[in-house]
């Protein structure tokens, strides 16, 4: 027997499994460096990809807006931002720098979360120049064009008014955009709800190319790139992180080619072959991405890619913040069945996309086909049941239930971090 550690909040749930049980993990931890994250980012910034140095871009610019990640993303900002700020001030010592928090469709980031993300020194320096994006306040956003697929492209006025727009970020597998990072800082990061919903429509989510690890021919990715171009995103610094959320690689420069180079690099470490099994245990990578149910289709989709027809998925996520979106919750909870809402999404016109429809659509796509057993904080028991899956307080209880459903001879696969892998043949 061997012990598998499944990420859950800031800790783990551990399970004893047979020695021959396949464990699908990213190989990012195989990356070794004698440099820390701060040094890794500096080297990337010193060697920008298809772009002038950031200090050159800053010359003659009175101001710059840096798009930063929100509380749901484990971006090591304290590795990245000091270098970006240093270079901006090298190019123009008097440049005014604003930090724009890319909340996308998420709740606003709190002061406490910002302080934890930035560190005390950076937070104190910039606290009067931090703007938290609000996708739901039209007065704070402005139309700059139309996405290739048709919807209005509307972004935060702070970004639109910036003389120079740049972004930090990190690259990981994403369950319908292919990979995070790069263009995603703009769409959905700082876009209006109208734009996000148009981009995340039922037709696009249903595309076979809108899957984990796929960029080419992905209609969602193509709209995102167009939005970043219209917003004039001039420079990015994106990192790759390991299982401990530490920086192991960095890519700076042109938002398209630097991001693609990072994607190509990461793909060699996160792609894993399916291990078809009757029971698959997965997670959302622990804190911060497992704070709400809205994010959980990410980890569930990794299990979906390897579970047998009629199989059982055990999903672990604290959901300590609850559902993560009223529309997301009610789309699932109020539906007659998971299949009913899934079918509704397929027949919803792009301009009538519902708020948070995309995550609910993927959740229902999985729940309609597989038995999902969900491990979450006790306080979220009713929430989990409302989302049409079975609730359990511990992994042991959920695993026992899975064995009850599939039998003692059922095959098992483990995915300790469901958001860090790309499961594909």
Helix tally? 16
| Terminal CA distance | 28 Å
Strand content: 15-25%
Extended strand count: 19
Please bin the fraction of helical residues.
25-40%
Explain how this protein is built.
The chain contains 16 helices and 19 strands. With 425 residues, the chain is α/β, with parallel strands linked by helices. The strands form six sheets. The protein has a six-stranded mixed β-sheet, with helices on both faces. A five-stranded parallel β-sheet has the order 17-16-15-14-18. A hairpin with a 2-residue loop joins strand 1 and strand 2 (11-17). The mean pLDDT is 95.
Please supply descriptive tags for the structure shown above.
alpha/beta, 33% helix, 425 residues, 6-stranded mixed beta sheet
Secondary structure elements and their pairing?
Elements: E1 2-8, E2 11-17, H1 37-46, H2 54-58, E3 63-69, H3 77-91, E4 96-102, H4 111-118, H5 120-126, E5 130-132, E6 141-146, E7 152-156, H6 157-160, E8 165-170, E9 173-174, E10 178-179, H7 193-199, H8 202-205, H9 219-231, E11 233-241, E12 247-253, H10 257-270, E13 271-272, E14 277-283, H11 297-304, E15 307-316, H12 326-333, H13 338-346, H14 357-367, E16 371-375, H15 381-386, E17 390-392, H16 395-406, E18 412-414, E19 422-423
Parallel strand pairs: 3-4, 3-8, 4-5, 8-11, 13-19, 14-15, 14-18, 15-16, 16-17
Antiparallel strand pairs: 1-2, 6-7, 9-10, 11-12
